[in-house]
């Protein structure tokens, strides 16, 4: 049986301790979740030859994988609230690995969509969201820095996985490469194992035997229906598996609209960049190295941006800082649309890595600042669901443009225009529609927010 709520007291985020192990796990999970769908683009040329398909057909693999990463958000939220982060992440790691291993035995592009796209994408989703939730539980004052460091996993893994994929492709073919990549994804299970729940502690003093038994119980997720919170009258209240009430927040609606536009174009350049370079006559190894350049610059951009975001005068104005990052990324795409030589592509990758890193480091910190950590699980699930629609539209649309007009220049204008539109909208909407209010980040504000929610629940 679970512990009575009256016998427990909340534990504030430690901002360190075991949180650094959680941060390391989040670093690896973020790396696989965001870098993997882009890194497998090095296999697209071979897949096009084997399955006799076009750019848009192969782009669907990464697009479906990303769509599952986003679209499974509500499912992940419900499972986390019901079973806890650790079991969900262990299952997710097995699914992600199994999907890529199964993909190595496929005989047509549809089977690749189901294995590498749907199954691996679902596995990554069941790892990604719980890792963010755990990170928000362990860090408060240092949260912008923690988010920046965890987000750095994406460029680190992109720098490593892209050339590794090209090496595996040259030595073992795409099937052998997929098989080995599936084995690497088993590391997600290891990361899930370190996600120790930050449980509430017993107030009453008990004998050593009972204390040890209680410690074992705290290591396990709460059983269905047993996790509860107190209302003002001391009666337990069941926790909602998915709280749609967060959609009443005007700031969240603005964020959702902006992120939908962002996701339409954010991943397009990285997914099609390798194929574009190969079509321009760039050798395969050099083409794959372009993603490594993006990743290398991104490695330094994300933690640095996290440090800047944690400054006292920046943190209250986070939406505007995020808007600047979006404008920077969009202008990079537009200004680099006419690059055709390798030197120009290298310069584009450097600036894209910097702007992309800023976007990656800030996106979830902005969301946490809007809804607070207590509502973050539900809000994140709903946000990712909306973004799944955009990620299904963006890369395949760019692939269709390339197939129809044989012109890569159009996709850079398309992606850049979408990022610029999102940045302008977020800045104007935040200025015109959202009144200045105190941050929800402090534990005191979280406590007051929970009390208000309890009062509304009773009335």
TrEMBL record:
GO terms for cellular component: basolateral plasma membrane
Classification via Gene3D superfamilies: MFS general substrate transporter like domains (1.20.1250.20)
Subcellular location as annotated: Basolateral cell membrane
One matching Pfam family: MFS_1
Keyword Transport: yes
Domain of life: Eukaryota
Annotated GO MF terms: monocarboxylic acid transmembrane transporter activity; symporter activity
TM stretches of this protein: 20-40, 60-80, 87-106, 112-133, 145-165, 177-198, 252-277, 289-311, 318-339, 345-367, 379-398, 410-434
Record key words, sorted: Cell membrane, Membrane, Symport, Transmembrane, Transmembrane helix, Transport
Residues of the Major facilitator superfamily (MFS) profile domain: 19-434
Primary residence: membrane
Membrane-related topology note: Multi-pass membrane protein
Keyword field contains Nucleotide-binding: no
UniProt-listed CDD domains: MFS_MCT3_4 (cd17430)
Matching PANTHER family: MONOCARBOXYLATE TRANSPORTER, MONOCARBOXYLATE TRANSPORTER 3
Family as reported in the entry's similarity comment: Belongs to the major facilitator superfamily. Monocarboxylate porter (TC 2.A.1.13) family.
Protein name: Monocarboxylate transporter 3
Naturally occurring in which organism (per UniProt): Triplophysa rosa
């Amino acid at each position: 049986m679970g512990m009575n709520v009256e016998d427990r007291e909340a534990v504030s985020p430690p901002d360190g301790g075991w949180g650094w192990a959680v941060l390391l796990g989040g670093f690896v999970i973020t790396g696989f979740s965001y870098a993997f769908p882009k890194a497998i683009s090095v296999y697209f040329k071979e897949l096009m030859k084997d399955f006799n398909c076009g750019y848009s057909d192969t782009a669907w693999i990464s697009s479906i994988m990303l769509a599952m990463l986003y679209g499974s958000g509500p499912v992940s939220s419900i499972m986390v609230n019901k079973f806890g982060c650790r079991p969900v992440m262990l299952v997710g790691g097995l699914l992600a690995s199994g999907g890529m291993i199964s993909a190595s035995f496929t005989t047509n592009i549809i089977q690749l969509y189901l294995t590498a796209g749907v199954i691996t994408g679902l596995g990554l989703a069941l790892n990604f969201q719980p890792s963010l939730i755990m990170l928000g539980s362990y860090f408060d004052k240092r949260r912008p820095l923690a988010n920046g460091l965890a987000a750095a996993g994406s460029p680190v893994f992109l720098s490593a996985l892209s050339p590794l994929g090209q090496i595996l492709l040259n030595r073992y073919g795409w099937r052998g490469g997929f098989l080995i990549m599936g084995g690497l994804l088993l590391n997600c299970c290891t990361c899930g194992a370190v996600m120790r729940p930050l449980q509430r502690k017993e107030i009453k003093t008990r004998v050593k035997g009972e204390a040890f038994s209680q410690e074992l119980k705290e290591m396990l997720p709460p059983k269905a229906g047993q996790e509860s919170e107190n209302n003002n009258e001391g009666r337990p209240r069941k926790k909602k598996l998915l709280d749609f009430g967060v959609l009443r927040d005007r700031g969240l609606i603005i964020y959702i609209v902006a992120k939908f536009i962002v996701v339409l174009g954010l991943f397009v350049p990285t997914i099609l960049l390798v194929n574009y370079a190969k079509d321009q006559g760039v050798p395969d190894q050099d083409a794959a190295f372009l993603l490594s350049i993006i990743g290398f610059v991104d490695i330094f951009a994300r933690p640095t941006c996290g440090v800047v975001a944690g400054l006292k005068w920046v943190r209250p104005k986070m939406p505007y800082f995020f808007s600047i990052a979006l404008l920077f990324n969009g202008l990079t795409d537009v200004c680099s649309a006419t690059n055709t030589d390798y030197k120009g592509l290298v310069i584009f990758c450097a600036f894209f890595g910097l702007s992309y890193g800023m976007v990656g480091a800030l996106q979830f910190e902005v969301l946490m600042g809007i809804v607070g950590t207590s509502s973050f699980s539900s809000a994140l699930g709903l946000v990712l669901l909306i973004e799944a629609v955009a990620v299904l539209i963006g890369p395949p649309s760019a692939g269709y443009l390339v197939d129809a007009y044989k012109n890569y220049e159009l996709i850079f204008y398309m992606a850049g225009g979408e990022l610029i539109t999102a940045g302008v909208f977020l800045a104007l909407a935040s200025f015109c529609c959202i009144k200045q209010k105190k941050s929800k980040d402090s534990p005191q504000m979280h406590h007051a927010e929970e009390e208000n929610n309890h009062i509304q629940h009773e009335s």
